[in-house]
Amino acid sequence: MEVKKKVRVSLDNPSIGRINERCINCGVCYEICEHQVGIDHSRESNEPSCINCGACVQACPRGALVTKYNYKGILNLLKDTDKRIAISVAPAVRVSLGEELGFPLGTNIENLLPSILRHLGFEYTFDVTFGADVTVMEEATELLMRLENRTNLPIFTSCCPSWVKYAGMYHPELLPNLSTAKSPIGMMSTLIKTYFREMNMIEDEIISVVVAPCTSKKYEILDGDTDYVITTRELAYMIKECNIDIPSLKPSEFDYLMGHGSKSAVMFGRSGGVMEAVLSTAYYLKTKKTPKQGTFRIPPASGLEKRTFKFGNRLINVAVIAGMTNLEEILKSKEDYDVIEVMNCKGGCIGGGGQPLGPKSSEIERLDTRIRALDNSDNDIIYAYQNRQIEELYEYYLTMEKRESLHTVHKNLSHLVKPKKEDINE
Ligand code: SF4
Ligand code: SF4
Ligand code: SF4
């Protein structure tokens, strides 16, 4: 059989690994990585070029590429009753976990999740949508300041670690343009270890676990306050290994203080969601008027969507991008935009590398159904600034100094790739 190129995987990659005995050298992973994900392997250095997205794992026909699992370690931690362990659930998980547990495609099991997680032994259960609302408050404030001062525009969203790593490797000149607001999971873990602990007078350390649709989040947490990330699939394995009897569980709610987010935060799970949430809240902060629902809605991008919106007394140009190949296209005219949302995965996090797998032939239907389930989720609170739990956080806890801990610095990673040929010749 012809031996084709395959992606190189370093042993210390926190997201993926390869079982060499299973590999048939078919080259599918290399094709996906180079042409769908957009990694320029011609610039690969000694270090394999990888943005940890997990697309190759989903595509590998032999199961040779695998996600690095952390859930067994967490099951062991849960046996230690001295440890205080919190788990926070990312938006996209609620409409996809059910696929692994026998529910029909697109079932939203948000109201069962807290009971499931408590049965697994987690002491505190939180909703990452709370953290997403904090990201929105900070990023909307940042956007208004940049528009006012005309600096570092366009602003790029920064909740997708694959995109942030890509920017650091291939476009370090863009780093000042990325929002410095931490991602929703980054917000959750920082606030669990400070705000939640202080408000509840908890002296012990709290271990912060996040369940996400994303393999790249395992890379993101190499820095920051989150201790472990497990994927949607890993949570399903935990539930099955612990024989949790789902039909016997009653619906319940996540824990108070950080247990509820707005509808716009739930929409972080799909592409276009961060853009809509940030623009809506920025509009309110600027005008003190609540925008009509759907004013800043953009359909989930399978590639690239561009819009112009009226924003107070000016127009604002925005783009929503899924995938790095589409990003390269928009960068040719980036000066034309004020805000750019970038997500690595098709449809956004709903199509993340840690989500339940299924046949390629039904991929579009699977993504569309999950997106519809997010769109149809019930929530009385529409925007971040209307969330009482967010109001309490800002009113009673966050000083200007504490707000600084909600921001991060994005790293220049250009040493991980070889310079472009043009740059060498100059
Ligand atoms: S897709 Fe899987 S089987 Fe094919 S070359 Fe890559 S690792 Fe090997
Ligand atoms: S995880 Fe993504 S970036 Fe890394 S090798 Fe696989 S497809 Fe390429
Ligand atoms: S789009 Fe979402 S799931 Fe995909 S890599 Fe980015 S953060 Fe992870």
Number of helical regions = 17
The small-molecule ligands in this entry are: iron/sulfur cluster
Spatial extent as radius of gyration:
21 Å
3D shape: globular
Assign the CATH class of the largest domain. Answer: Alpha Beta
Mean pLDDT: 95
Q: What do we call the CATH topology of the largest domain?
A: Rossmann fold
Low-confidence blocks of residues: none
The fraction of residues in strands falls at 5-15%
Question: What profile does the largest beta sheet have?
Answer: 4 strands, parallel
**Strand/helix succession:** EHHEHEHHEHEHHEHEHHHEEHEHHHH
CATH architecture of the largest domain: 3-Layer(aba) Sandwich
Can you give a write-up of this model?
This protein is of the alpha/beta class and 426 residues long. The protein has two domains: 1-68, Alpha-Beta Plaits; 71-404, Rossmann fold (3-Layer(aba) Sandwich). The chain contains 17 helices and ten strands. The protein has helices at residues 28-37, 55-59, 71-79, 97-100, 113-120, 128-149, 161-170, 184-199, 217-220, 232-241, 263-266, 273-287, 324-331, 363-375, 388-396, 400-404, 421-425, and strands at residues 16-18, 65-67, 84-89, 124-127, 155-156, 206-212, 228-231, 304-311, 314-322, 339-343. It has a four-stranded parallel beta sheet, with helices on both faces. Strands 5-10-9-8 form a four-stranded mixed beta sheet, sandwiched between helices. Strand 9 (314-322), helix 13 (324-331) and strand 10 form a beta-alpha-beta unit. The longest helix has 22 residues, at 128-149. The chain is globular and about 65 Å long. The N and C termini lie far apart (42 Å). One iron/sulfur cluster binds next to helix 1 and helix 2.
